[in-house]
Specification:
Largest sheet: 3 strands, parallel
CATH architecture: 3-Layer(aba) Sandwich
Distance between the termini: 33 Å
CATH class: Alpha Beta
Number of helices: 6
Order of helices and strands: HEHEHEHHH
Number of strands: 3
Strand order of the largest sheet: 1-2-3
Shape: globular
Strand content: 5-15%
Helix content: 40-55%
Radius of gyration: 19 Å
Length: 132
């Protein structure tokens, strides 16, 4: 079923909860599933960014597990990781921007024929006439 959700994906965010270390193991399974079911047109895997969420809820004084996150990225071929908090929109926006930069750095991806369809002159006239 996940193949349907991944169809035509050009990038992915995988979220792990820093307050629940087992979610990093679940992210590993999701990464393996994504890699097995979706590739770019050139056959390369889509860029995947690990989102380390809830960094604001880490126990006071505990360091961010940067070494563990770096090791996860290296072991699983992700483009990197980004610490976020669902309470802080700027951190989420930065993570999305980082993924978008990786997607655009790979160059243009072909659009499907449906998206590339140019309306015929009669379709264009009907749309202009009827507002549909």
């Amino acid at each position: 079923m996940t193949r349907v959700y991944y169809r035509e994906a050009v990038g992915a965010l995988l979220v792990a909860d820093l307050t629940r270390p087992k979610t990093l193991q679940a992210a590993q399974r999701w990464k393996e599933d994504v890699d097995a079911k979706v590739q770019l047109p050139d056959g390369h895997p889509i860029p995947v960014l690990l989102v380390a969420n809830k960094h604001d809820l880490m126990p006071t004084g505990s360091p961010l597990p940067e070494a563990e996150l770096d090791a996860w990225v290296s072991a699983h071929g992700a483009i990197g990781w980004h610490a976020t908090s669902a309470k802080s929109m700027p951190t989420i926006e930065k993570a999305v921007h980082r993924l978008l930069e990786a997607i655009f750095a790979r160059g243009p991806t072909p659009v499907s024929t449906h998206e590339a369809h140019a309306p015929t002159s009669s379709e264009a006239q009907q749309k202009a006439c009827c507002g549909s």
